[in-house]
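Budget justification aside, the reviewers requested a transparent look at the raw inputs and outputs of the sequence design task funded under Objective 1. We therefore reproduce one unedited record. The lines immediately below are the structure tokens for a 151-residue chain.
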């Protein structure tokens, strides 16, 4: 099941003369459940004034399902009610990163951010990193860096 959290953030500094507030929804472990997430957003938007609607949805964690698919049967043609931006650490992450390392819109309104980087979304600066932490690779890279530094 997905975990939701909403947030507001200033697009160019808060306080006097600062930027406008940006409403975003943060979601973890979608696992090909974009339809379910969109249904939740539609319900939330129905209770809010239009100026309070989310400007972007960020999905982190496992976006792809265990079978490496990005979409469930019910959301094949669904267009989200607001733009979705995601990274992936699920089963399909390696293929997705290999095919789109710099990111791309994978369907209308759904954007894979890419392997790593910094971008602008809804007036916010967003840093991202896709993939899964592997202690064995991290330790090997750290050991190699330490050897290089001491040489």
């Amino acid at each position: 099941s997905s975990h939701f959290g909403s947030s507001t953030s200033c697009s160019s500094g808060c306080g006097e003369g600062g930027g406008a507030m940006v409403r975003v929804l943060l979601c973890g472990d979608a696992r090909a459940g974009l339809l379910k997430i969109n249904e939740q957003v539609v319900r939330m938007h129905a209770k809010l004034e239009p100026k309070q609607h989310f400007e972007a949805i960020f999905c982190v964690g496992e976006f792809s399902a265990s079978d490496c698919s990005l979409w469930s049967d019910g959301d094949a043609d669904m267009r989200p009610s607001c733009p979705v931006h995601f990274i992936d650490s699920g089963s399909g992450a390696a293929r997705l990163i290999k095919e789109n390392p710099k990111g791309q819109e994978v369907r209308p309104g759904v954007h894979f951010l890419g392997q790593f980087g910094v971008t602008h979304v809804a007036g916010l600066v967003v840093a991202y990193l896709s993939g899964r932490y592997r202690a064995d690779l991290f330790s090997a890279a750290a050991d190699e860096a330490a050897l290089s530094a001491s040489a």
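The two ends are 49 Å apart (CA to CA). The first strand starts at residue 3 and ends at 10. Computational costs for records of this kind are itemized in the attached budget.
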